[in-house]
Each structure stands twice: as structure tokens, then as C-alpha cells.
């Protein structure tokens, strides 16, 4: 995939590159903000526009300096949730989109890997607390349809070189989850690690175990358009230990399978199930909070049942080498052998699946002989003999 070259746009061009819904919301917020307050769109939406990606970030991050976030959110009229600790409000927009309206602040980290301690600050302070230079950009709304671009040092050169550089020397020491977030961005936007990023990887690994936010970033990695590519980036950066051994290879293979199938969207559950297959250390993977659905999908793929082509179960079976070397008997085959349509067919299929899982059959002919033998028994009850075809 070839990405467009970074742009050198004027603020009006950036503004016009935003979706109409975003422009409408920002205009409304600017109009409702108190006199003297500053309002700016920051982070991913601005970054993607500067990279020539258009508005690739569906959600919006908006910073307010010199005003009350909760009061402003109430005036907008949209549903919102308020987070008092950081003074943030999440606005729920039409179409399932969100906008985070945050109070401009400074942050410090009393304990490495722990939650930051916020203090009120300026818009410039808010940019300085961010993770990477490419995210330290803001489109400030000045009123009357005008705006200006604010950024910290190194942003233009890093955008032009597609470099991912931590914003300061202790970035990963403060928050190891930034390492995974960086891998996600690098994979999605084809960014390259700056030498400063690679130098900070050991610090991130050192505090990974005491960084609760790391698990949520690893879950978000599974929701990337190509999770395998992001896992490969982590491995290339020397951080493969954050995932089970072999994760990059397996998830990249799943990337290729789903791309070839043109499914059009990522299946987080399928990727999570593939990840679960790599480790018997359930406690380690449970710490990621993957939930029950991936484990249930993996169990279905492992039970030797025949699944429809293209289903998550069949895809996982093929990926993990669980597909049988022959075509097993299905319901129509059982009808052809003399079983009557109805519950007995289902019970016999379950019986056969148990035999496959136990390795009792080497071919469809073995299955056929087992069913014929069963049919000639005076009293047959596959549900009571499912372990001995």
C-alpha cells in the first residue's frame, strides 16, 4: 500500500478536510465557549490530515482552555458522559461517533506506569503532555471562520520523513502503553521508528508489568486493520515479549487470509482466538481481558466439527492446521447411508466428531464403515456411545 505524501496545508485547507459533522460541532463549541477561552482540535484527526490521509480518525479530540468542560458539553445538547478526575466530557454524536472534550492540562507521573496526576494548563501545555511529535498538533479555532495550526518542535520534519518520535526522553518510562500505541500507529500509517523511540524500548519493557493501560492497548492492537502488521512492528522493535511467542507470524498469516477473502472488516474475536491458541498460560492471556467469546471460538475450532467455508471456525481451523486431510461425512451423507432425517442425524454427527477428535478415523471411508457398523447394531444409541464408534 502506498500512502500519500505529507501535506503542507494552510489552516483553511485542514479545516475543509474535516467532515461536515466535525466542522459543525467545532463551530458550535466555538460559539458557545466563554469569552477569552481557547478551543482546538488536537491529536489524531489533525495528524491524519497533515499526513494526507484525509480524516482517517473517526473520533475527535478537542481541548478547551479557560472554560468549564461540563458546562460547555451541556450547552451542546448532545448526550455526554463526564469524567470528573480529568475534567473530560465524551460527547455521543450521530452515527455512533464520539468527541472527547477535555480541559487543557499538564500531567506528571508520580509512579512510573501509574495514572498521571493532572493540573490545569494551557493549550501548549496540553500538546506537550502527548506521546509522539506527530500527535502534538492542534487546529485552534479563532472565531469568525478562522483557525491556525499549532505544533511542537520536530513535527514538520517527522511528518515529512514519516518518523515516529517520542515527545520527550522519559515518555516510555512514564507509560509503557505508549510503545504499543506507537506500534499501532506505525503499522496503520506506515511510520518508521525514530532512533529515540528504539532507545526507549527497554524502559517500556522494564515497567510493562506495572502499567495497567498496557492491556487495553494490546486489545486495541487486535482491532487494527492489520493486527499482524502491528505485532510485527513490536517484534522488530525488540518488544515481542509483550505477546505470546509466534504472535507476529500467526497474526500476519491471518491478515493475509482475511485480506484475500476481502471480508472488509477486522474480526477482533478471530484475532483474539488466534492469539489464545499460542499459549497455555491462561492467566497471562486473561490479563488482557479478551473475554469469553475468543475462548469459545477457539474451542469450537478445536472440536473437529465440520464448519461452513468462510466461517470464523473454519478460518481458524485452517490457520491452526486443524483441518482434516479428508472431507468428513456430513448430514446428507448420513441420509444416503440409511439414517432418517431428524434428531438421529444430529446425534450421529456429534458421535462422529468425537471420534475425529480422538483420532479414530484416517479417511471418510473409515467414518462410513463406522456408521454402517452402527446401523447394523440391534439397538443403536450414538449419544450413549459417543466415545466408541
Largest sheet: 7 strands, mixed
The strand order across the widest sheet is: 3-4-5-2-1-8-9
Low-confidence stretches: 1-7, 383-389
* Gyration radius from CA atoms, angstroms: 27 Å
Could you estimate the helical fraction of the residues in percent? 40-55%
Query: What is the terminal separation in angstroms?
Result: 52 Å
H/E topology pattern:
HHEHEHEEEEEHEEHEHHEHHHHHHHHHHH
Whole-number total of structural domains = 3
Strand content: 5-15%
Which structural category do the helix and sheet elements fall into?
A: alpha+beta
Shape: elongated
- Overall residue-averaged pLDDT value: 87
Tally of extended strands?
Answer: 11
Number of helices: 19
Overview features:
disordered C terminus; Beta Polymerase, domain 2; 389 residues; alpha+beta; 7-stranded mixed beta sheet; two-stranded antiparallel ribbon; 3 domains
Give an account of the 3D structure.
- With 389 residues, the protein is of the alpha+beta class.
- The protein has three domains: 11-161, Beta Polymerase, domain 2; 163-319; 331-384, no CATH class.
- The protein contains 19 helices and eleven strands.
- It has helices spanning 11-17, 20-32, 44-50, 69-76, 123-128, 155-161, 171-174, 177-189, 195-207, 213-221, 227-236, 247-261, 268-276, 282-286, 292-301, 312-319, 331-336, 343-357, 364-375; strands at residues 38-42, 60-65, 80-83, 88-92, 98-103, 105-108, 117-120, 137-143, 146-151, 163-164, 192-193.
- Strands 3-4-5-2-1-8-9 form a seven-stranded mixed beta sheet. It has a two-stranded antiparallel sheet with strand order 6-7. A two-stranded parallel sheet has the order 10-11.
- A hairpin with a 2-residue loop joins strand 8 (137-143) and strand 9.
- Helix 8 crosses helix 11, helix 11 (227-236) packs antiparallel against helix 12 (247-261) and helix 13 crosses helix 15.
- The radius of gyration is 27 Å and the shape is elongated.
- The two termini are 52 Å apart.
- Residues 1-7 and 383-389 have low confidence and may be disordered.
Amino acid at each position: 500500500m502506498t500512502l500519500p505524501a505529507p501535506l503542507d496545508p494552510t489552516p483553511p485547507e485542514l479545516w475543509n478536510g474535516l467532515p461536515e459533522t466535525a466542522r459543525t460541532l467545532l463551530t458550535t463549541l466555538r460559539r458557545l465557549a466563554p469569552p477569552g477561552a481557547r478551543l482546538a482540535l488536537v491529536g489524531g484527526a489533525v495528524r491524519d490530515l497533515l499526513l494526507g490521509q484525509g480524516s482517517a480518525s473517526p473520533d475527535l479530540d478537542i481541548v478547551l482552555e479557560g472554560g468549564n468542560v461540563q458546562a460547555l458539553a451541556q450547552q451542546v445538547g448532545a448526550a455526554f458522559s463526564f469524567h470528573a478526575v480529568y475534567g473530560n466530557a465524551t460527547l455521543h454524536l450521530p452515527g455512533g461517533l464520539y468527541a472527547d472534550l477535555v480541559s487543557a492540562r499538564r500531567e506528571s507521573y508520580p509512579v512510573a506506569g501509574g495514572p498521571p496526576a493532572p493540573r490545569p494548563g494551557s493549550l501548549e501545555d496540553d500538546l506537550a503532555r502527548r506521546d509522539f511529535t506527530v500527535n502534538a498538533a492542534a487546529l485552534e479555532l479563532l472565531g469568525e471562520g478562522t483557525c491556525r495550526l499549532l505544533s511542537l518542535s520536530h513535527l514538520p520534519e517527522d511528518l515529512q520523513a514519516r518518523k515516529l518520535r517520542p515527545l520527550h526522553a522519559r515518555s516510555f518510562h512514564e507509560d509503557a502503553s505508549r510503545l504499543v500505541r506507537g506500534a499501532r500507529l506505525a503499522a496503520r500509517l506506515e511510520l518508521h521508528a525514530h532512533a529515540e523511540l528504539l532507545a526507549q524500548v527497554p524502559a517500556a519493557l522494564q515497567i510493562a508489568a506495572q502499567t495497567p493501560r498496557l492491556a487495553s492497548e494490546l486489545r486495541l492492537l487486535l482491532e487494527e486493520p492489520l493486527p499482524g502488521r502491528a505485532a510485527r512492528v513490536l517484534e522488530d522493535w525488540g518488544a515481542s515479549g509483550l505477546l505470546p511467542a509466534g504472535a507476529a507470524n500467526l497474526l500476519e498469516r491471518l491478515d493475509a487470509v482475511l485480506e484475500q477473502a476481502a471480508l472488509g472488516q477486522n474480526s477482533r474475536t478471530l484475532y483474539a482466538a488466534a492469539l489464545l491458541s499460542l499459549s497455555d498460560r491462561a492467566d497471562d492471556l486473561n490479563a488482557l481481558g479478551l473475554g469469553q467469546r475468543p475462548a469459545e471460538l477457539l474451542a469450537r475450532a478445536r472440536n473437529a466439527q465440520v464448519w461452513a467455508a468462510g466461517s470464523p471456525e473454519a478460518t481458524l481451523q485452517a490457520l491452526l492446521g486443524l483441518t482434516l486431510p479428508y472431507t468428513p461425512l456430513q448430514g446428507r451423507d448420513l441420509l444416503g447411508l440409511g439414517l432418517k432425517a431428524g434428531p438421529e442425524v444430529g446425534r450421529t454427527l456429534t458421535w462422529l466428531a468425537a471420534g475425529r477428535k480422538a483420532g479414530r478415523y484416517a479417511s471418510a471411508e473409515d467414518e462410513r464403515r463406522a456408521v454402517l457398523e452402527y446401523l447394523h447394531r440391534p439397538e443403536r444409541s450414538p449419544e450413549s456411545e459417543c466415545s466408541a464408534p
